[in-house]
Prior knowledge:
Elements: E1 3-5, E2 8-16, H1 47-55, H2 75-85, H3 108-117, H4 134-144, H5 167-175, H6 195-213, E3 217-220, E4 225-228, H7 234-250, E5 257-258, H8 260-276, H9 289-295, E6 302-309, H10 314-323, H11 325-331, E7 338-345, E8 351-359
Parallel strand pairs: 5-7
Antiparallel strand pairs: 1-2, 2-6, 3-4, 6-8, 7-8
Helix pairs in contact: 1-6, 2-3, 4-5, 7-10
Amino acid sequence: MLKKVSSIVILSLIFQATPYAESLMSTTEVALAAEVAKDVPVTHWASNSIQHMLGEQYMTTYEDGSFKPDQSITRAEAAAAIARSMQLKMDSSFSPDFKDLPANHQYYKEICALVELGILQNGDCFNPDSPLKRMQIAKMLTLSYNIEVDSTNNSKFNDINEAHWAKDYIESLADVGIIQGVKSQQFAPNLMVTRAQFATLIERSLTFTNKVKNFEVAYDYLSKTYIPTVNFSSTMSNEVVRLINIERHKNKLQPLSLDAALTQVAVIKAQDMVNRHYFEHESPYYGAPWDLATLFDYPYTSLGENIGRNIPTPQAAVKAWMASPSHRENILREHYTNTGVAIAEDSKGNYYWVQLFSSQ
Length: 360
């Protein structure tokens, strides 16, 4: 289905499918510090991260007002900070089997919450005061913040062999920039994590999960990596939605809701067309639009797609699509409820447009 309007090229497609589940991750926002550690000057390399942790009350100072940034973080302290940063409810009646963790322990509820979620392993002993190693922290962070773990990673360390139990956790976390090696090719898995280092790791984890929550990155299950999914122009995309809804109103149809998750899928498709130099509904890498939506965990009962290129403005895009019977049909399809619009720019400054439609 190919139609030209001047130099404008557009294509449309529809599909019906069955629904499935979608999961989204949540995170927290940065707040001003309410507590200041007397032993962490503003010149300290981790000062901002530590003050962030204190301000959000994810971590605390000791009774004497010190933070002890160079002291190894304990298992109990780490569990408490992670549970608080995840904003978990602490009212569960779950009780672990640990014989060395009394119910009146300072961080008992936080530890229980993580054990109940499977982030910490239940057993006879928790060893709450034991320090944590870098390899142990890597596993805790990936499980806590839902970082995808796989064996296909760019990060490699000479002291982490293929058989190491934490290899995939470490490399996957390093790939997204949350953890780093002590040297370019050395990870030092058995090195203890200090409280200052832990504060920075938590902050980086929250920053990354916030990007996932805001649809700025997505995990690509084909390439086994996270990819950026920032739209070229949200303003232009929003204008397309506004103009489309005007057309639907003229035809006495309900407006389409702008769907951030569907827009992310549209961004991936637009970027894919630019990166792989094609202009079709069928991606040579991801397949059909509904295959792409399924791959990135987007739920729908029906799906449609309009694409275009060499279109300079939102007004021109909507005008071109409305002039084409197949595109117009997608725009005015009664059962569609949601839409997502994305634009990508190629090296010559040409725009590739993708509008996806779905019913929920």
